[in-house]
Design a protein that fits this description.
Layout (H helix, E strand, L loop, with lengths): L7 E2 L10 H11 L3 E5 L5 E6 H12 L4 H13 L14 H4 L1 E2 L10 H10 L4 E6 L2 E7 H10 L12
Antiparallel strand pairs: 1-6, 2-3, 3-4, 5-6
Helix pairs in contact: 2-3
Length: about 160
């Protein structure tokens, strides 16, 4: 099965000038783990993931206990007191994105996508056709494919 058969078409994207506040809103409201950052021609410049944003908070606060970390995360990223400066204010997708993300082609086999997801430790990959974003493929997409087409491959069969 090819990536084009299981990818999400017309994914949500952002531009490099998108604010971190808008990124958080999109990630939470859409229930997604990552957003491709694209230029005006649809070329992928990078990816912003929930992990990228969480790492930023953790790196900025270096809390010693889990409860302190959660409080720091909540205050720094999701809500803030108007009397306190918002640390995310003025920060954009272009500043926090991971550059040169791994990607797949629509014609790649789903096994290629699975391997890249594992090797790069990501939850989703952009699907590019002639350098332009045409979709996204995620770990969940691969599991849906395995459920819908159990005979297409058997990843649990022993290779003797």
């Amino acid at each position: 099965m090819q990536v084009r058969d299981l990818m999400t078409r017309d994914p949500v994207t952002v531009g490099p000038a998108t604010s971190v506040e808008a990124l958080i809103d999109l990630l939470v409201d859409k229930g997604i783990n990552g957003l491709p950052v694209v230029d005006e021609f649809g070329r992928v410049l990078g990816m912003v993931t929930t992990g990228d944003l969480i790492h930023r908070v953790a790196d900025a606060h270096v809390p010693s206990r889990d409860s302190i970390w959660r409080e720091s995360l909540y205050k720094s990223v999701f809500r803030h007191d108007d009397s306190e400066p918002n640390p995310a204010e003025g920060v954009t997708a272009g500043a926090v994105m991971s550059r040169n993300p791994a990607y797949v082609l629509p014609s790649d086999d789903m096994a290629v996508a699975a391997r890249l997801l594992i090797e790069h430790r990501v939850k989703s990959l952009p699907v590019l056709d002639e350098e332009r974003l045409v979709g996204m493929v995620s770990r969940l997409d691969l599991l849906r494919c395995l459920r819908a087409h159990p005979g297409c491959c058997n990843p649990f069969k022993r290779q003797d």
